Amino acid sequence: MKLTWTFYPKGEPNITLTVVYVPQLDAFTVAGYLEVDTNTAYVNWTNFRVFNSTDQSAKKALFGSLHRVERFDALTLFLP
Predict the structure, then answer these.
(1) What is the dihedral of CA 67, 4, 55, 66, to 10 degrees?
(2) Residue 22's CB: how many other CB atoms inside 10 A?
(3) Could you give the CA distance from residue 70 to residue 36 in angstroms, rounded to a whole number?
(4) Nearest Cα to Cα of residue 28 among 71, 80, 77
(5) Half-sphere exposure in the Cβ direction for 19 (13 Å, CA)
(6) Are strands 15-21 and 2-7 parallel, antiparallel or unpaired?
(7) Gap between the Cα atoms of 71 and 74, Å rounded
(8) d(CA 40, CA 2)
(9) Side-chain half-sphere of 5: how many Cα atoms within 13 Å?
(10) H runs (alpha helix) in 1-80
(11) Is 27 helix (H, G, I), strand (E, B) or coil?
(12) Nearest Cα to 46, choosing from 25, 74, 75?
């Protein structure tokens, strides 16, 4: 599943974030991952529901806690 969220920081251009639910992340407690170049977040179900809610402050807090990565690759998360 995927959704987009656009927010408008004061005095800055708007930011549109694509949020992708990755079922494999349900096994981890990490907030999720943010590909900075593509502005795409990869999150578990709990955090996908936060981005799908109307609680803007919760979305902003979650956005701030995402781990920034150059490229997200779910396969590397699950290698022993």
Answers:
(1) 0
(2) 19
(3) 6
(4) 77
(5) 23
(6) antiparallel
(7) 10
(8) 10
(9) 23
(10) 45-51, 56-65, 74-77
(11) helix
(12) 25
The tokens for 46 are 């709990």
Name residue, tokens 């943010």.
34
CA distance 54 to 70: 29
Number of DSSP helices (H) and strands (E) in the chain, helices first: 3, 5
Tell me the pLDDT of the chain (80 aa) as tens digits: 999 999 888 898 998 999 999 998 998 888 899 999 999 999 999 999 999 999 999 999 999 999 999 888 876 665 44
Residue count of the chain: 80
Q: Is 33 helix (H, G, I), strand (E, B) or coil?
A: strand
CA distance 50 to 46: 7
φ, ψ of residue 50 to 5 degrees: the values are -65, -50
Look up residue 16 and give its two tokens: 């549109």
